[in-house]
Structures are given as C-alpha cells and as structure tokens.
Specification:
The chain has one domain: Iron/manganese superoxide dismutase, C-terminal domain (minor pseudopilin epsh fold), CATH 3.55.40.20. About 60% of the residues lie in helices and about 10% in strands. It is built from eleven helices and three strands, in the order αααααββαβααααα. α2 runs antiparallel to α3.
Length: about 300
C-alpha cells in the first residue's frame, strides 16, 4: 500500500507576506542600482567639469611677454641692439612660454591630487617663474635717459643706509660681479626694518621669494645679457649698466614701500610678523609688484 505525502496548505497571509517582501526587495535593489548609477554619472560630470574649469582657468591666466617702452637699440652703446633683441624676444619669451606650460601641468596635477607631480614641478616653476619676474623688473630698471644719481626718497635712503651713493654703487657692483656662474645682483627694500639692502641671487631665483626683500634695482649677469658685447669681462658690463639705470622707477618704488612701513606705529611694525598688519603691509608694497608675483598672483 503506497502512502501519499501529506498535502501542504499555504496560508494566504504567509504567501502574501512573502510576495510583499520579494516586491520590496526588488524595488530596493532597483533604487540602489539607480542611485549608484546616478552617483557614477555625477562623479564623471564632476571630473569633466573640474577638467574644463582647469583648462578655462589656465587659458584665462596665461603669462605674456611685456612690451618694452623703448626700442632695442635705444640703450646703445651700453647694451647693443642685438643683445636686447635676443634677451627680450628670445630668452625672456622662453621663460614665459615654459612657465605657462609648467603651470598647466601643475593645475592638472592639482586637479588629480597628484602630490608627486606637484613636487616634481616646483623647480621648473621656480626657474621659469623667477626668470619671468626678474626680467619684467629688469626692463623697467633701464632707460635711454637713465644714469646719473637718484633723487628724492631713494637718495635719502641710500645715504642713510650706505653712507653715499658712490658707496652703494661700489658695494652693489662688487656683489653683482662676484656672482658665481649665472645670477642677479639686487638693491632691495627690507620691509621689517624699512631699510635698503644689497643681495645676490643665483640662477633665476627671485629676490623676494628667496630673501624677502622687495626688488628695486636688478642687474642681470647671465652671459646672455652681455657676452656678445663684453665677452668674459663682466666688470665692464656692470660698470656700463650704471649709465642706463632708470632711477625714477626706483624712487617711485621706494616711496611706495617706505609709506607701507612708516604708516604703522613702532609697536605695530615690531609685531608685523604676528598680526594682520603684515597682510596690509604686503598688499600696499605689492601694489608696485602686482605684476611680478606669478604663478599665484595677477599675470603680466
């Protein structure tokens, strides 16, 4: 005799609950899948937008080669037209182009969060950015009607800090000639003390970024600045440069920077490193140098 299996009776409530669970689970999976899909789309859109903004920002903030206010031959016989043409349209232009390329790579590295790439680009930023800063200042330091001695506040500051114009000239010439290899000799303004200082920087290291001094007068002693005319006799080149120095430009800069310091009390100046006054002082002095602060400030 074959025994039949007992018949299983499904309770309607159990069956309905199970179907409800399955339905809810299916809906939940669908919602989660849809949400993840949207998140992926948002991330892709954000990445695309970030890249676009980076490209737009880079395009809007390109550095450009500044125009000279005088002809290439205007500084002869002290600096030949050939040297000026090569120095400005070739050497300075190369620094500008390389700086723009390096900044684009740096912005891409920032967007990707690639710290290694950011660090590796620092030397190129320093070299090409410094070259652009230094030469932009250098051209304003020269004039066909230059030479002689400065007037006004700059002359007063020179006499106070060096004893006389001749002593300052001798000290700066010696420091500039003594630069080993390539570099720059500088007369700069020290904000903390309100005094003038002489310094030398190697290669294209910018004065303010290296020493904190605000550049007033710079002499380029890279060989491309003089070798075609003066060969290896750097002292003769430095001596000739004093005949075309634009002292009017230097005096204006000194007056603006001196005002930035003397407009604060002695106690405020003493605490300038720890207070917001430092920011205000930098902003005032920076008005003169606002074109000379790439890669992070306004562009030339």
């Amino acid at each position: 005799m074959v025994r039949s299996k007992p018949r299983q009776v499904e309770h309607p409530l159990v069956k309905g609950s199970f179907q409800l669970v399955v339905c809810v689970f299916s809906e939940t999976v669908g919602l989660v899948t849809n949400m993840l899909s949207r998140v992926g789309q948002i991330r892709r859109c954000a990445a695309s937008l970030s890249q676009t903004l980076t490209q737009v920002t880079a395009a809007r903030h390109k550095h450009t080669l500044p125009d000279l206010t005088y002809d290439y031959g205007a500084l002869e016989p002290h600096v030949s037209a050939e040297i000026m043409q090569l120095h400005h349209s070739k050497h300075h232009a190369t620094y500008v182009n390389n700086l723009n390329v390096t900044e684009e790579k740096y912005q891409e590295a920032l967007a990707k969060g690639d710290v290694t790439a950011q660090v590796s680009l620092q030397p190129a930023l320093r070299f090409n950015g410094g070259g652009h800063i230094n030469h932009t200042i250098f051209w304003t330091n020269l004039s066909p009607n230059g030479g002689g001695e400065p007037q006004g506040e700059l002359m007063e500051a020179i006499n106070r800090d060096f004893g006389s114009f001749q002593k300052m000239k001798e000290k700066m010439s010696a420091a500039t000639v003594a630069v080993q290899g390539s570099g720059w000799g500088w007369l700069g303004f020290e904000k903390e003390s309100g005094r003038l200082r002489i310094a030398a920087c190697a290669n294209q290291d910018p004065l303010q970024g290296t020493t904190g001094l605000i550049p007033l007068l710079g002499i380029d002693v890279w060989e491309h600045a003089y070798y075609l005319q003066y060969k290896n006799v750097r002292p003769d080149y430095v001596k000739a440069m004093w005949n075309i120095i634009n002292w009017e430009n230097g005096d204006q800069a000194t007056g603006m920077c001196r005002y930035a310091v003397t407009s604060f009390s002695k106690d405020q100046r003493a605490n300038v490193m720890q207070t917001r006054q430092r920011y205000k002082l930098d902003r005032i002095c920076g008005d003169f140098l606002k074109s000379f602060t790439p890669p992070y400030g306004p562009r030339v």
